[in-house]
């Protein structure tokens, strides 16, 4: 009884503090033109989020999905459930109130997202809730049990606390990439009921919680749209579905899927991507085809249930944060123009307004090469240009076996950017991060090609190997230090917490650790080179 009373006091205090700052209303006539913040993967500073809100306001965007939870933890410290796995640097209630008030005053609707089905390690990796783990062992994704009352009670608590802070009309409950059904409670439930009915039944119950808080539910649409279409017919029609698809560029297909969902009387949000697992330090021009297709379809689809477009932007640990403003500007222009826009069209104005310098043929060459030659990353569907730093013995063997040097288009544009150094009048730190991103790509190309050059030299004596690998290790450590310094600007998460992640700048931390190890034991490299 005391615990329940304490919870009610906490939630009541949050509510009183939050709702007094609630704006009168959002502009309900305009469709969403929005952005997404993936806070659990890398928590960024309040100052950076203020800047992002200003960018959205200036570029005609009107909404931000603020992801609060994921496998990595919660980016907010829950007062009602402090036992949940929480990210280092998580926000307090007061900080979120300040952020949301700033967004409200700039006309940006900040929509919270709580992962409520899959992506649930922030729950199931705690001692208290590990019994709710419902995912099949060995599979990539996970889930909480959809048939446990404990799951429902927990979600109701989390929703209540977050709904009292965020002033948005909407509440995103996640539900993408769910691997469920392996827990004993689910196995028993599946003896008498189907997977689609249990899936939809659980989400419908969550929807009732959201509605009781005066909000409207949004879910990711991969399961009901693409993977288990029976679920779609079982969901309540007052749930908003978000069609996320980061690789489709065929406007006819995007249009057909949208109309299928709208014909079933659901409200719908289109969701193409900026950065996702196909990309590393820089996004390639192929991604603009995806954004452009959604912008044209959703920008011109006349249906009251078409709520607009929100751009997802995943895993900020993959890139240098402040070197990405050109990409955001291009995407925002595509949304405003409702597609039919070439990505280069936005860049002359960006260079002038953001860097205070004139557009010329060299700037055009820089951006064309950056976007056309951006290396594809881990889940790429096209591996034709797969630039990764070699980071283990197998990588070295593979490079030696293929004996193919990488094209290095980044050397030229690195030098062109260096020539602009003294002419940048505004946002010099952003320019430096962009420059460092290009220098990094140039370095990775050179690093691999130099390995082949050394191997081809047939120098197998220990002294030559020592000199070579010591030089590589020293250069790797210098570059790692530069990347860490740049990455840290604008982040609440520390680099030490992220370096070992495979996504951190194409796994360069692992690569630099590997060469450091070889430098201490050059005989290991000598052994590899003999194979």
- How many whole angstroms does the radius of gyration measure? 25 Å
How many runs of DSSP E, i.e. beta strands?
Answer: 11
What form results from the Cα inertia axes? Answer: globular
Low-confidence stretches: 14-21
Number of helices: 21
Cα separation of the termini: 70 Å
Strand content: 5-15%
Structural class comes to alpha/beta
Please give the largest β-sheet. 8 strands, parallel
Mean pLDDT: 93
Structural summary, described in words:
The protein is α/β, with parallel strands linked by helices and about 525 residues long. It has 21 helices and 11 strands. It has an 8-stranded parallel beta sheet with strand order 6-2-1-11-10-9-8-7. Strand 3 and strand 4 (about 75) form a beta hairpin.
Kindly summarize this structure in a few lines.
The protein is an alpha/beta fold and 531 residues long. The chain has helices at residues 2-19, 46-58, 93-105, 121-124, 149-163, 184-190, 195-212, 222-227, 230-234, 251-263, 286-300, 325-336, 347-355, 361-372, 393-402, 410-420, 428-456, 462-488, 495-498, 508-520, 522-530; strands spanning 32-38, 63-67, 69-70, 73-76, 86-91, 109-113, 170-172, 216-220, 240-244, 268-271, 306-310.
How do the strands and helices of this protein lay out in sequence?
Blueprint: H1 2-19, E1 32-38, H2 46-58, E2 63-67, E3 69-70, E4 73-76, E5 86-91, H3 93-105, E6 109-113, H4 121-124, H5 149-163, E7 170-172, H6 184-190, H7 195-212, E8 216-220, H8 222-227, H9 230-234, E9 240-244, H10 251-263, E10 268-271, H11 286-300, E11 306-310, H12 325-336, H13 347-355, H14 361-372, H15 393-402, H16 410-420, H17 428-456, H18 462-488, H19 495-498, H20 508-520, H21 522-530
Parallel strand pairs: 1-2, 1-11, 2-6, 4-5, 7-8, 8-9, 9-10, 10-11
Antiparallel strand pairs: 3-4
Helix pairs in contact: 2-3, 5-7, 10-11, 11-12, 14-16, 16-17, 17-18, 18-20, 18-21, 20-21
């Amino acid at each position: 009884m005391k615990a329940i009373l304490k919870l009610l006091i906490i939630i009541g205090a949050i509510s009183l503090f939050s709702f007094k700052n609630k704006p009168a209303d959002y502009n309900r006539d305009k469709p969403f033109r929005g952005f997404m913040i993936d806070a659990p993967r890398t928590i960024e500073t309040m100052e950076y989020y203020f800047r992002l809100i200003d960018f959205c306001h200036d570029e005609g965007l009107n909404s931000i999905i603020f992801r609060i939870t994921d496998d990595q933890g919660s980016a907010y410290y829950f007062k009602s459930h402090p036992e949940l796995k929480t990210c280092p640097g998580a926000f307090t209630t007061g900080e979120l109130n300040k952020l949301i008030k700033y967004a409200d005053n700039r006309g940006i609707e900040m929509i919270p997202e709580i992962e409520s089905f899959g992506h649930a390690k922030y729950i199931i990796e705690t001692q208290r809730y590990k019994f709710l783990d419902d995912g099949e062992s060995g599979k990539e994704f996970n889930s909480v049990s959809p048939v446990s009352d404990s799951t429902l009670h927990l979600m109701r608590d989390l929703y209540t606390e977050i709904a009292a802070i965020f002033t948005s009309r909407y509440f995103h409950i996640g539900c993408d990439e769910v691997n469920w059904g392996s827990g004993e409670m689910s196995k028993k439930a599946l003896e008498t009921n189907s997977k689609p009915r249990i899936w939809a039944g659980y989400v419908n119950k969550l929807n009732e919680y959201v509605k009781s808080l005066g909000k409207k539910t949004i879910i990711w649409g991969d399961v009901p749209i693409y993977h288990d279409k029976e679920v779609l017919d079982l969901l309540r029609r007052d749930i908003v579905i978000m069609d996320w698809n980061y690789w489709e560029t065929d406007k006819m297909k995007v249009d057909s899927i949208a109309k299928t969902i709208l014909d079933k009387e659901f409200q719908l949000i289109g969701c193409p991507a900026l950065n996702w697992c196909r990309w590393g330090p820089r996004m390639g021009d192929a991604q603009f085809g995806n954004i452009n297709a959604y912008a044209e379809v959703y920008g011109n689809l006349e249906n009251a249930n078409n709520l607009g477009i929100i751009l997802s932007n995943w895993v900020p640990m993959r890139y240098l944060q402040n070197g990405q403003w050109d990409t955001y500007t291009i995407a925002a222009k595509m949304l405003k123009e409702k597609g039919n826009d070439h990505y280069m069209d936005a860049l002359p104005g960006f260079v002038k307004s953001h860097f205070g310098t004139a557009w010329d043929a060299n700037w055009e060459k820089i951006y064309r090469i950056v976007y056309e030659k951006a290396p594809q990353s881990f889940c790429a569907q096209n591996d034709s240009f797969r630039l990764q730093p070699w980071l283990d013995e197998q990588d070295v063997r593979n490079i030696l076996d293929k004996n193919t040097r990488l094209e290095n288009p980044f050397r030229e544009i690195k030098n062109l950017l260096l020539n602009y150094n003294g002419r940048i009048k505004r946002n010099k730190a952003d320019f430096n991060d962009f420059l460092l991103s290009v220098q990094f790509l140039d370095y990775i190309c050179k690093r691999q090609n130099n390995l082949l050059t050394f191997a081809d030299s047939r120098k197998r004596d220990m002294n030559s190997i020592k000199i070579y690998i010591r030089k590589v290790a020293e250069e790797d450590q210098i570059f790692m230090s530069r990347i860490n310094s740049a990455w840290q600007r604008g982040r609440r998460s520390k680099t030490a917490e992220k370096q070992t992640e495979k996504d951190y700048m194409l796994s360069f931390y692992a690569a630099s650790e590997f060469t450091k190890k070889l430098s201490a034991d050059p005989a290991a490299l000598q052994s590899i080179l003999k194979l």
